[in-house]
């Protein structure tokens, strides 16, 4: 009897200690055997002291925590993802060594009040989310103590200046995203990315660049380049010629008026080129897209293109989709679309253009009959003239209606 009471007490004690160590801290929400611990948006002002030892993902975001004590995460040997966003932290919030945890891979410091990249970051982490902070300048010291970063997300800061050598320590960076900042021409040197020889993805979305960046010394490893929503007017000839591994270029919602001949020369791995909602009015010639032998999708909707020369698409032997809705096309010479050159072409958008439906584009209307699925939304391609067919769509007209006086 005594014996079993004793055993019972011992077992309870053992269970109690277990429960304390592995319990979910009050207010927090734990999942997957307490490996995922959500303490975000709970109003706490300190890091809970009783975090489960096997925590892998810890979300402390959107609280009123002012600082992280040195031993806050001590003993959390499996901690990999630490989310600290939305706490008004500054550079001095992490007490000496608090984040010196070699298991951490992903760190989220978004929505804070940092003026610089904090020091004392985890020694071996690969991903830094640093959205929405008021930082204006990256210096040569910014990443000296964080060379393990591979994914650097700096969207929605106030970056105006990237000093020389700022990114140099990031020799393993595969993505650098500095979109939604205040970068202008001259904010960074053409040599800024010269040490990032593993970089795959570089994003400058919605900054204030007026001239196309000088990419001569950008890493050749680049696969995706994004200058969406800037104020760049011209894509110069040979603008990207050294970036021969590029697969996608995005320049939509910008101010591009002119694409010079040979702008994309050398990019024979490019598969997607996206110019939607720019202001391109330059004539498209057989050299505009020269060299794009692997291109599959060309997005050019909502521009002001009024002339596409025969031959413009002929070199794009892999092209599948051509998107030219909402441009300023009135006519196209026979042969612009020629399945002899573009054997895989299967989708063409031409609607919402001011077409003059006379004999000069009868060939195009004939193409709709000959290849019924090729040209999309023919009911939305409405003729602007000549008077007998004005206001009528390609869907209700037939080739014989396309006549010249
Ligand atoms: C905490 O963050 C997770 C995403 O990481 C989210 O799904 C959850 O709704 C958040 N909890 C609260 C209370 O906001
Ligand atoms: C980080 O912790 C390791 C031991 O885990 C120690 O050797 C190293 O000096 C610490 N680094 C800093 C900057 O505190
Ligand atoms: C650093 O991280 C890599 C994986 O990203 C891992 O293989 C390596 O063991 C880590 N090094 C240390 C010291 O934790
Ligand atoms: C870069 O990656 C390599 C290979 O994974 C690794 O050996 C090296 O330590 C990394 N460099 C830094 C600065 O993290
Ligand atoms: C690009 O930058 C390099 C190095 O600074 C320079 O030599 C080259 O002339 C520049 N190219 C253009 C088109 O400005
Ligand atoms: C491009 O078109 C011009 C005529 O406008 C022609 O002389 C030239 O040979 C063509 N070039 C290519 C590469 O097709
Ligand atoms: C559209 O093209 C016509 C000639 O076909 C030209 O007069 C007009 O300026 C162009 N409009 C724009 C916005 O480019
Ligand atoms: C056309 O598409 C087929 C099937 O996807 C592919 O095998 C072929 O290489 C493509 N042709 C060209 C010229 O890209």
Proportion of residues in helical segments: under 10%
Pick out the low-confidence regions: 5-21
Elements, N to C (H/E): HEEEEEEEEEEEEEEEEEEEEHEE
Shape label: elongated
The small-molecule ligands in this entry are: 2-acetamido-2-deoxy-beta-D-glucopyranose
**CATH domain fold name of one domain:** Leucine-rich repeat, LRR (right-handed beta-alpha superhelix)
Helix segment tally? 2
Overall average pLDDT: 94
What's the arrangement of strands in the largest beta sheet?
1-2-3-4-5-6-8-10-11-12-14-16-17-18-19-21
| CATH classification class of one domain | Alpha Beta
Strand content: 5-15%
| CATH architecture descriptor name of one domain | Alpha-Beta Horseshoe
The strand count comes to 22
Strand-pairing-aware structural class:
mainly beta
Largest sheet: 16 strands, mixed
Structure description:
With 405 residues, the protein is mainly β. Among the domains are: 233-347, Ribonuclease Inhibitor (Leucine-rich repeat, LRR (right-handed beta-alpha superhelix), Alpha-Beta Horseshoe); 355-404, no CATH class. It has two helices and 22 strands. The chain has helices at residues 2-22, 362-370, and strands at 29-31, 36-38, 57-59, 81-83, 106-108, 127-129, 137-138, 151-153, 161-162, 175-177, 201-203, 224-226, 234-235, 248-250, 258-259, 272-274, 297-299, 321-323, 347-349, 355-356, 375-376, 383-385. The strands form four sheets. It has a 16-stranded mixed beta sheet, with no helix packed on it. β1 (29-31) and β2 (36-38) form a beta hairpin. The chain is elongated, with a radius of gyration of 29 Å. Residues 286, 311 line the site of one 2-acetamido-2-deoxy-beta-D-glucopyranose.
